[in-house]
Write a structure and sequence with these properties.
Blueprint (H helix, E strand, L loop, with lengths): L1 E4 L7 E4 L2 E5 L3 E7 L14 E7 L1 H11 L3 E9 L2 H12 L3 E8 L5 E7 L5 E6 L8 H6 L1 H5 L3 E4 L5 H13 L3 E4 L9 H4 L4 E2 L3 H8 L6 H13 L4 E5 L5 E5 L2 E5 L1 E2 L9 H12 L7 H15 L12 H5 L6 E2 L1
Parallel strand pairs: 3-6, 3-10, 4-8, 6-7, 10-11, 11-12, 12-13
Antiparallel strand pairs: 1-2, 4-5, 8-9, 13-14, 14-15, 16-17
Bound molecules: alpha-D-ribofuranose.
Length: 325
Amino acid sequence: MIWKQITEKNLEMVVEMNKVAVIGSLNIDTTLEVVNFPHPGQTVKAINKSSTAGGKGANQAVAAARSQAQTSFIGKVGADQQGKFMIAAMQEEGIETSGIKVEQEAGTGTAAIMLDQRGQNSIIVYGGANSYLTAADVQAAAPQITAADFAVAQFETPQAATIEAFKLAKQNGVTTILNPAPAAKLVPELLGLTDIIIPNESESQQLTDIAITDLASLERSVAKFASWGIACSIITLGEKGVFYSFKGKTAKLDAFKVKAVDTTAAGDTFIGAFAAQLLPSLENFVTAIDYAQKASALTVQHLGAQVSIPTVSEIMGSIQLRRGS
Ligand code: RIB
């Protein structure tokens, strides 16, 4: 592991060349900007429309690569132009893509995103080829997973594929990070294979049945994860910050205060940047959270998913950011 000083003024250090394997989704995001979200039965006009590269898995991989991680991706696209576009987008980031398979039975995944003027979004995801990722596809990419420091997965690809990936990871001393998004019922086997869990508030609530209303409920939520054998957890709270549990210590960190234009991929940026900057010994857990919070504070200030994910120099240069409650 190499630690590198990035500027003379900024004496913080960044971790270089963590190996991160992401198992997950690739989507083409079509974003429609609206003044207000339509109610059921209502038609509203969009102010703007754009199509960009997205998908929770792909976004997390891009965030990791832009934060200095040697990143590989395991996933599936359709045999279409969008699939080619997604693979090319990943390769441009220097991401290793031999683990991306082409599915003949379904097209590349798609997300329809509605974005309002307060920067809030509503997303509908059509899984397409992502839903066809199998344990055998993951096995074919075993070398990328077993050579990694961290294996990262979400819920936009089948949990059977994630279980296979996390089994390979655990057998080879690779730390596993699960982002249970979008919220879904968790296959119990996955619990025993997860080292670090990173849900948002609603995903945490769906998993634990504990509504997050205050610090006490956050404490109870991370205690529940710990009772399932997941000692390290981070609950992301959007503009309210994050709450983490690490080595028996829990704490809430406020978010950096910024004006959000589009929160799409903010959580993905957090996870990718965190995996890129966390030492395999986990000893810099809180520093890596701080770095990841800065990264997502930059993402929300721009439109779109992957286009808005910052690079390591942009994150380390963001010294003007201040926390606020
Ligand atoms: O987390 C944001 C992502 O969720 C978008 O890029 C979209 O593709 C959906 O998967």
